[in-house]
Design goal:
15 strands; Rossmann fold; 7-stranded parallel sheet; alpha/beta
C-alpha cells in the first residue's frame, strides 16, 4: 500500500509508510461485519446522554447510512428514539429497510414515514429533547432544472420547516449534519472551520444554505444548535452510489474499477463509528452555536484505497481511469483540533481496518463469500 499522509494542524504533512493498522486480509483482522453500537460509560465531557438519563431523541434520515447507525447507537445507550424518513428513491428501498432492521427490533424505537418539507411535524416532535437532523439529498455535480428544485426542497426547505417546528420548543440540542462539500477547493489543508466556504456542487451549496438557516434560528430564536461537517464517511451500510461501495461492487463482480481522474486526489476518510461517536457527544458538549469538522485525522489517495482493497480482498484490481468528474474536489482534509478539544473525541479506526469491516459487510449483503453473481449485488 502506498504511503499515507498524516495531517498536522499547522498545515504540515508527515508521511507514514502504509496504514497504522495491521496489513493483511479481512479474515486476519477478525473484524465483524458491522461496528457494534455498544454504550461506553465513564468518558469525559462531550459524552453522550449518560446511562440512566434516558432521553427522547428524534433522528431525521433514520433509514440512511449515518442515520441508521446513529439510531442503533442511541438505542444501545438506552434512549428512546423516533426515526423519521420519507424513503426518497435515491437508492433501493430494501437497502434502507435493512438499515433499519436493528433499530426496529428495539422496544425503544418508533418510526414515522414523513416528508419534512410537506407534512405536519408537530406530533412527531412532541417530547423530543435532542433532534439530530441528518436527512438530505446527496450527490456531486451541478444540477439544473427539476434536479436543482429537489436539492432546494430536500436540503433547504425541509431544514427550514424543521427549524420552524422546533422554534419555541424546549429542546436541549439540535445537531445538524453538515458536509465538507461546503469547502470546495479549500484555501488550506487541513481545512479549519474558519475557512471561507466555496462549494463546487449543488449539494454543497444547498448544505451551506441550510447550515446558515440553522445558525440563523439559533441566533434569532434561541435554538441550541450545533453544526457538524462530516468528511467522507465510510463503513457498513454506505450508500451504493458512494465511491468505496462502487469499488467493492465492481470488485465482487470482477469488473474494472472506474476511477474519476488520476486517483491521486485525496480524501479524509472517516469511519462510521467515529462519526457517530462525535455526533452523539455533540448533543451534550458545550458547543452550542459551534461548527465542528468531523474527519478521520489523515488523508489518503483514491489509489491508496484501491491498494488497501486489493490487500484486504486478496483480489486483483483492474483500474480504468476516466476524466476527472466535474465539481469534484481535488483534495480534502479536516482540521479536527476543535472537535478534539470541545468533544474530547478522537477518531480511532484506521483506514485499513475500516475498509476491512465494510468489505466483510458488503460480502454478507451480497449473500455469498467470497464472490457473488452479478444479479445478487446491490446497485
Amino acid at each position: 500500500m502506498q504511503a499515507r499522509e498524516r495531517q498536522t494542524e499547522n498545515g504540515s504533512v508527515t508521511v507514514q509508510a502504509g496504514s497504522t493498522a495491521q496489513s493483511g486480509s479481512a479474515k486476519s483482522l477478525s473484524l465483524p461485519p458491522e461496528p457494534r453500537p455498544a454504550s461506553r460509560a465513564g468518558l469525559s465531557k462531550g459524552r453522550s446522554q449518560k446511562a440512566g438519563n434516558r432521553i427522547r431523541a428524534v433522528v431525521t434520515g433514520a433509514a440512511g447510512f449515518i442515520g441508521s447507525h446513529l439510531c442503533d447507537r442511541l438505542l444501545a445507550d438506552g434512549h428512546e428514539v423516533v426515526g423519521i424518513d420519507c424513503f426518497r428513491d435515491s437508492y433501493a428501498r430494501n437497502l434502507k429497510e435493512q438499515n433499519l432492521a436493528t433499530a426496529r427490533a428495539s422496544r425503544g424505537f418508533s418510526f414515522c414515514r414523513l416528508d419534512l418539507a410537506e407534512e405536519d411535524l408537530s406530533s412527531v416532535l412532541d417530547g423530543a429533547e435532542v433532534v439530530y437532523h441528518l436527512a438530505s439529498r446527496s450527490g456531486l455535480g451541478v444540477s439544473t432544472g427539476r434536479d436543482f428544485d429537489q436539492y432546494i426542497f430536500d436540503n433547504v426547505l425541509a431544514t427550514q420547516r424543521l427549524l420552524e417546528a422546533l422554534a419555541g420548543r424546549p429542546i436541549t440540542r439540535l445537531v445538524y449534519a453538515g458536509s465538507s462539500s461546503v469547502y470546495g477547493e479549500a484555501e488550506m489543508l487541513p481545512t479549519k472551520e474558519s475557512s471561507v466556504p466555496r462549494p463546487l456542487s449543488t449539494y454543497g451549496a444547498t448544505k451551506l444554505a441550510a447550515e446558515n438557516l440553522v445558525q440563523l434560528y439559533g441566533r434569532n430564536f434561541g435554538l441550541p444548535v450545533t453544526v457538524l461537517r462530516y468528511f467522507t464517511v465510510y463503513g457498513p451500510r454506505q450508500r451504493p452510489d458512494m465511491a468505496i461501495s462502487r469499488f467493492m461492487r465492481a470488485l465482487i463482480q470482477g469488473d474494472e474499477i472506474e476511477v474519476n481522474g488520476d486517483g491521486e486526489q485525496t480524501r479524509d476518510f472517516t469511519f462510521i463509528a467515529d462519526a457517530v461517536e462525535a455526533t452523539v457527544r455533540s448533543a451534550t458538549a458545550n458547543v452550542v452555536g459551534d461548527v465542528l469538522n468531523i474527519g478521520g485525522g489523515s488523508r489518503s489517495t483514491i489509489n491508496d484505497v484501491l491498494d488497501a482493497l486489493a490487500d484486504i480482498s486478496g483480489r486483483t484490481i483492474r483500474r480504468r481511469y476516466l476524466a476527472a468528474a466535474a465539481a469534484d474536489q481535488r483534495h480534502a482534509a479536516a482540521s479536527i483540533n476543535l472537535a478534539r478539544w470541545r468533544l474530547s473525541w478522537e477518531p480511532r479506526v484506521a483506514l485499513q481496518n475500516g475498509l476491512a469491516s465494510q468489505w466483510a459487510w458488503f460480502q454478507q449483503l451480497a449473500g455469498r463469500e467470497p464472490g457473488v453473481s452479478k444479479a445478487a449485488v446491490p446497485a
